[in-house]
Amino acid sequence: MLDARSALSRGDLPAAGEAARAMILAQPEKxxxxxxxxxxxxxxxxxxxxxxxxxxxxxxxxxNPEYLAQYARLLILLRRDGGAAAAARTALDCPTDDARxxxxxxxxxxxxxxxxxxxQPFKNAVLLEPGNLDYRYNLAAACGFTGRVDTARAEYExxxxxxxxxxxxxxxxxxxxxxxxxxxxxxxxxxxxDGTSEPQDQLRLRYALAKxxxxxxxxxxxxxxxxNANTEHKRRIGYDFAQDDAIFDAIxxxxxxxxxxxxxxxxxxxxxxxxxxxxTGTTLVDRILSSHPKVAxxxxxxxxxxxxxxxxxxxxxxxxxxxxxxxxxxxxxxRIGELYLARAAHHLPARAHRFVDKLxxxxxxxxxxxxxxxxxxxxxxxxxxxxTIWSNFRxxxxxxxxYYAYSYDLLDTARYYAxxxxxxxxxxxxFPGRVLQFSYEALVDNQExxxxxxxxxxxxxxxxxxxxxxxxxxxxxxxxxxxxxxxLNAEGIGRWKAHGEHMAAVRGFLERQGISTV
Length: 518
Prior knowledge:
26 helices; five-stranded parallel β-sheet; mainly alpha
């Protein structure tokens, strides 16, 4: 057993596999050999092959926390969230002093959107192995998501003290709170940037530096750092706007003909979809809605994109592409709704009457939402186009995600915004009044009036708690975490103007598209 585990830990998969198979031959009634051969398969990228082997191990030892944690992890990788949730909950009830198992459990809970429950496993993993910086980073991130800002800051500082070039920790610390001229990390970030040539680290450090420079009132230096980061990353990923253009074209073509599907009645506990371009106030509206006693937040679910993909039955690796868009139109509308609700159910807090799904990119799926979940409420955030484009350009999203590949170039972001705006007009024509176009600026200008309008659209009675959304204790796992905990303010309005010269080409493009920039 030790030979198999030690070979696995040093990455020698052939030796680990041979040792695990020998264990199975010698003691087929024991669980360990099946588990270790499963881990070898998983490390080799053969997740589907690994799964039944872990199940074999669990049939022998059904309450082994290590087996359960790894089983949950594999199920998450296969997007089987329901099984992952069940395995993780069982594992949480099984005592363990294995730090890796605890960290794995925490990571599974994060993927399920249960950030609050992830804190304790991460904390226990760090107590057991305080020198493991990956475990400490996971704890810090979970603390940041759940509003334990001082603890998160201390953990990130501990990581940086041990590893001064840790770009993940530098970036997370930079966005954790607003920096000031008196208290910032600009010099330390510049030194870390000078000390690395690794592209992903450079990307994070430049974004962190740009964020802090903008915080302390140095917009030109901020733009230089940001532009360098984005130019290099766009080159590395080989992005061409034609990729997103084709998706928008396919959606518009798919919904060009009159819709003849019967609108099937949905459940009374209908979801509320908050959609729009990223960085336009979607997290803010999610917090307002989930401050209502009858509403809980489910975070940014992948449930609708995956439901549409599953209903389409296409074999492409992309969740959304032209082929999938066309094929999904042949699926019964109620089938997509059923698949969506089944996937969403595993991410909902207990006893949630209504829930918010705030994946911004669901604006691409408004047609399917309207057809498959006719009782669902849909709110689309609208923010001044120049602020929207600047905010997309200046924020580091998931750098490997195709959803945000446009955001590393200002004109690409402007082109994406123009297609978003055009698609929202398509949805309004097809489903008039179904989507509430909700202005971020109007909300800031008149919070109560706009909050009442929002609640009315979602079929919710007035509750004053929605005005105190900053007191909402639910986790926030987006770059907006610091802002939404400070209450409503106008700081983000007109921020693009500090970079007016660099934004001139964007403004000209939008005006040629007939989009007002006044």
